[in-house]
Design goal:
This is Efflux transporter periplasmic adaptor subunit. Keywords: Coiled coil, Signal. It comes from Microbulbifer thermotolerans. It is a single chain. 27% of the residues lie in helices and 33% in strands. The chain contains 5 helices and 24 strands. Helix 2 packs antiparallel against helix 3. It is rod-shaped and about 140 Å long.
């Protein structure tokens, strides 16, 4: 009974199936959601250069005479005061020269006294016309020569005393010993650096600027400094000095960045970072790293046609990669929309439904009207 009813209803069901609409074609495209972003201006980016805290004044300390170092009185990191002895030379020979100079001065003084007494006697004889004028001139000449020899001996004694004083190297001002380049028992020449002193006072950050970017920097340029020990605290700074020549090994230019250490409180040798704002007037924009892909080594991004809501490949020229973004030097404008993720899952001309990172629809009509 039941089987006969099913067979009787079969033609009716086939007729209903013929009248119902057909399912969409399997190959027909459906707009899929896609996360879209607009490029950021490069002015919102910051270049970061690591550096180290140095003293603004770092004089190289050396002996003014050569000799053998007999004693080294300080070491690296020691704090010293102005006039404090730092090292001494073996001064035996210098003391002998000083004794010799004193003896020569005593001899010159004796000759000068004798010549003076003789000149006095000849003046009296000349007044009584007991000697000729030529005899008196001879005695007077000897007196003047003795006076010159006395002056010379006095000068030689002063030089010998100074030489003896130069055997002790003293700190020219308060500071900290930053480097030691000689040791006790070493023979050094006059002017050879023995210590480097980090003078108290102003502090600076020493950084290395890459050769390709050196044209973007100038003396007086405003920057920001952050200490590794105080992350998140940025202090105003400026470029005080840029080396006129690149380092022969690293091909970088040394720069000194000055700041107010009364506010920062930096210590010598601390690590720091210098932040440099990129030039916003250059027209350069940046996009997330996930928005960029490449084909045969040529980078490109997917750009949205706002009217058709379709994606199209756009070749671009990239700048140096950052931590999260990459600058686009050419090929993309700041008002365009690019695909921010899933670049390998789309194809040329594909329709999409633009959404933001929170999966909210983007009202392109309002965006376009605002731009117009």
């Amino acid at each position: 009974m039941f089987r006969s009813l099913v067979i009787a209803a079969l033609p009716f069901c086939l007729a209903l199936a013929a009248c119902t609409p057909q399912d969409p074609k399997e190959g027909e495209d459906k707009p899929r959601p896609a996360v879209m972003v607009q490029p950021q201006t490069a002015g919102a980016q910051r270049d970061i250069y690591p550096g180290e805290i140095h003293a603004r004044y770092e004089p190289a300390l050396s002996f003014r005479i050569g000799g053998k170092i007999s004693r080294r009185l300080v070491d690296v990191g020691d704090r010293v005061k102005k006039g404090q002895p730092l090292a001494e030379l073996d001064a035996k020979d210098l003391h002998l020269q000083l004794d010799s100079a004193r003896a020569q001065l005593s001899s010159a003084e004796a000759d000068h006294r004798l010549a003076k007494n003789e000149l006095t006697r000849y003046q009296k004889l000349l007044s009584k016309q007991l000697i000729s004028r030529s005899q008196f001139d001879t005695v007077e000449s000897r007196f003047e020569a003795s006076a010159a020899r006395l002056e010379q001996a006095q000068a030689q004694l002063d030089v010998a005393r100074n030489q003896a004083k130069y055997a002790i190297l003293k700190a020219p001002q308060d500071g900290v010993i930053a480097r030691r380049l000689a040791e006790s028992g070493q023979v050094v020449a006059a002017g050879q650096t023995v210590f480097t002193l980090a003078a108290d006072g102003d502090r600076e950050v020493r950084i290395d600027l890459p050769e390709q970017d050196i044209g973007h920097f100038e003396v007086g340029q405003v920057l920001a400094v952050e200490l590794w020990s105080r992350p998140g605290n940025f202090f105003p700074a400026r470029i005080r000095e840029i080396s006129p020549a690149a380092d022969t090994t690293s091909r970088t230019f040394e720069a000194r960045v000055a700041f107010d250490n009364r506010e920062v409180g930096a210590e010598l040798g601390q690590s720091a970072r210098v932040f440099v704002d990129s030039d916003a007037a250059s027209g350069t924009v940046s996009v997330p790293l996930s928005a960029v892909t490449a084909d045969n080594g040529q980078p490109y991004v997917w750009v949205l046609d706002p009217l058709q809501q379709t994606l199209h490949k756009r070749l671009v020229t990239l700048g140096p990669y950052g931590e999260e973004t990459v600058p686009i030097l050419s090929g993309l404008g700041p008002d365009e929309w690019v695909l921010a993720a899933g670049t390998h899952l789309v194809r040329e001309g594909q329709r999409i439904r633009p959404v933001d990172r929170m999966n909210r629809p983007i009202d392109l009509d309002r965006k376009l009207a605002h731009q117009e």
